[in-house]
Design brief:
Strand content: over 45%
Order of helices and strands: EEEEEEEEEEEE
Helix content: under 10%
Number of strands: 12
Strand order of the largest sheet: 3-4-5-6
Distance between the termini: 34 Å
Structural class: mainly beta
Oligomer: single chain
Length: about 180
């Protein structure tokens, strides 16, 4: 993918390309407190017999120089993971919300509740995983927005087509659409 920094009159200050040998799609970028940028999107991977898409997070400095990159594979690299949003947190780390079909992002510990699940990921300032969790019911559930409140808690908004999950441990999805 291609990133371009323009000044206020539209003149290019710098431009960079990042990515893999597959298709890369980065629809979301935020400026970080240090003046750099963090981008989140999907990267196409080939596991030997078919293509899948997985989360890719890239942090660059204010001049577009790569600081770190996190490629977060789904379990068995088999699911289409998408619709990510990222915020910088009060501890200068990052919180991500999105969705995953497998319900498991290379951890073997996140349950799959059926369909697509909401996925929450917490990273430190260096992009190291501090924790993750999935939420959902028997239908498709997508996390599309995230905020951190003044107490340090996270608020996730999104979409659900689940109607059969009333267990609070799973996010208590108890509605239809």
């Amino acid at each position: 993918f291609w990133i371009v920094k323009l000044n206020n009159s539209g003149t290019i200050q710098w431009q960079k390309t990042f990515g893999t040998t597959g298709s890369d799609f980065f629809p979301y970028i935020i400026q970080t407190l240090d003046g750099g940028y963090v981008m989140i999107g999907t990267t196409q991977i080939f596991n030997g017999s078919y293509y899948g898409y997985n989360c890719n997070i890239i942090k660059i400095n204010s001049n577009g120089i790569l600081e770190w990159q996190r490629f977060i594979e789904s379990y068995n690299n088999s699911s289409f993971d998408s619709r990510y949003k990222i915020i910088q947190t009060a501890d200068n780390g990052y919180a991500v919300v999105g969705s995953t079909v497998s319900g498991d992002t290379n951890s073997n510990s996140l349950p799959n509740y059926g369909g697509t699940n909401i996925w929450f990921l917490k990273l430190d300032a260096s992009g190291i995983t501090q924790g993750q969790r999935s939420y959902g019911g028997g239908g498709d559930d997508h996390g599309s927005s995230i905020q951190q409140d003044s107490s340090g808690n996270y608020i996730i908004a999104g979409y659900t087509s689940s109607y059969n999950n009333t267990n609070p441990a799973y996010g208590q999805v108890n509605c239809n659409h």
